[in-house]
Amino acid sequence: MAQLWGGRFTKETDKLVYNFNASISFDKKFYREDMEGSMAHVKMLTAVGILTEEEKEQILAGIEGILNDVENGTLEITDEYEDIHSFVEANLIDRIGDPGKKLHTGRSRNDQVALDMKLYTRKELLAIRDELEELLKTCHKLMKENVHTAMPGFTHLQKAQPLTLAHHIGAYMEMFKRDHDRLGDIYDRMNYCPLGSGALAGTTYPLDRELTASLLDFYGPTLNSMDSVSDRDYVIELLSALSIIMMHLSRFCEEIILWNSNEYQFVEIDDAYSTGSSIMPQKKNPDIAELVRGKTGRVYGALTSLLTTMKGIPLAYNKDMQEDKEMAFDAYDTVKGCIALFTGMLKTITFRTQNMENSAKNGFTNATDAADYLVNHGVPFRDAHGIVGQLVLFCIDKGIALDDMTLEEYKAISPVFEEDIYEAISLKTCIEKRNTIGAPGPEAMEAVLSINEKWIEEHLK
Question: How far is CA 415 from CA 24, 30, 229, 377, 396, in A?
Fold first, then answer.
């Protein structure tokens, strides 16, 4: 068993205890980050005179050799080692001898793992943001293509008012823009380097922490060594942001699942993102949408788990914090995969625009506009509301829509109605006259699209 701390102990650790304590099975995931951190540390140690140039070159060549061998498959990271740090250090010493023993000068596994986790989380945050940017571009493209695609808007899963597909997708565009901004905020808050904090109280070596931070593309060093080794706020923040992203994806998936049903028939999901039934040949199931919806709970679980783990930990580092990794790694991978698959499904989906428009024409989505018509003809809104309620009851009894009523039938309920009521409650009018910013009317939507174009230019690659 390769251990970095055996000098204090006279008895070998029980095998079961060793396995329970070891983290190599999951922290090997950030082997690259561990070695990149070590190389930066070595360059800094040389710059401050702790290592010689020759020692630096030997150590760097040794680490680069280990990295290459791991990545080309000739060196396996096995559970012979307790953690990724001991794997790197033991292999380095085997390859270059005594200079390898100087690698750990001026650092602890506490600040080392804090660095590794921060580097890995930073990389994953950027990868997730890249996936989110592709989704944002897809939403924007669909909005531009569907400014005039009418559909019903819903509240309480009941038809409410007519709007457009561009407006509906625009709601998710706003959600995903906020998600993108949240990721940027987290990046800026977390991008400070903990290496050089030691176990919890810094070190007596004359380390140049600013140089280390610069070499690893951080904004600067962290400012409190105790906080540095015990901080996992950035992981919790990212898991929180990822939970919100998954909530947004899940809501969108729920709508696509509904729209894909026989009752709605608003969309046709591409065959590549659907499956069939093993016994019912007519079925085309929205499995990807359902899986994304289902995996949301998995990400919530990671957030809740880490919050629970961290809530009772006194300063500074405690072994409990080893539990930050497995579920966080799983959440990162889950969200990346879910965004990528959802984007692919959205890019290839077919919107049945005629079905959407027909649905918007039914269900009294223009009832509010009939009330507005009366208000514009001098009827107090509360009275207008009651009159239109009578119209709806009449239509339900007759099995017709407001558009199908005769003028005589309108006038029998209120003499205020005239021939222009039909234009006032037409689907086209109901949508196109709503042009305050944020509404579904074409003028308002073009203004929003212009704002989004500028936002994309400023924020996305």
Answer: 81, 76, 77, 11, 21
pLDDT below 50 — which residues of the chain? 1-2, 5, 9
3-state secondary structure of 319: helix
Q: What is the pLDDT of residue 275?
A: 73
- From 156, 225, 230, 243, active-site residue: 156
Amino acid in position 331: A
Q: What is this structure's pTM? A: 0.91
For residue 158, what are its two tokens? 């009941």
pLDDT single digits (tens) 180-217 = 999 999 999 999 999 999 999 999 999 999 999 999 99
Query: CA 287, CA 348: separation in Å to the nearest integer?
Result: 15
Q: Hey, what are 382's tokens? A: 């509360």
Q: Give the C-alpha separation, 367 to 385, whole Å.
A: 9
- The pair of structure tokens assigned to 179 is 């998600």
CA distance 156 to 181: 30
Residue 204 tokens, joined:
């007596």
pLDDT attached to residue 11: 53
Cα 230 from Cα 117, distance rounded (Å): 12
- pLDDT tens per residue, range 122-164: 999 999 999 999 999 999 999 999 999 999 999 999 999 999 9
> Which of 408, 385, 384, 405 has the alpha carbon at shortest distance from 395?
405
C-alpha–C-alpha distance, residues 67 and 76, integer Å: 11
Q: Check residue 4 and give its pLDDT.
A: 53
Closest CA to 97 of 37, 69, 45, 55: 55
Q: What angle do CA 340, 440, 170 make, to 5 degrees?
A: 15
Q: Dihedral sign for Cα 413, 417, 419, 421, please.
A: negative
Active site residue 274: no
Please report, for residues 161, 352, 357, 423, the alpha-carbon distance to residue 442 in angstroms, rounded to integers and kept in the order given. Answer: 16, 20, 16, 18
Active site residue 214: no
- The active-site residue, picked from 277, 278, 377, 426, is 277
- In DSSP terms, 350 is beta-bridged to 268
State the Cα–Cα distance between residues 370 and 384, nearest whole angstrom: 8
Residue carrying structure tokens 């990724």: 84
Joined together, the tokens standing for residue 450 give 């212009």
Strand-strand pairing, 150-155 and 158-164 = antiparallel
Q: What share of the chain is helix, strand, coil (3-state, %, to 5)?
A: 65, 5, 30
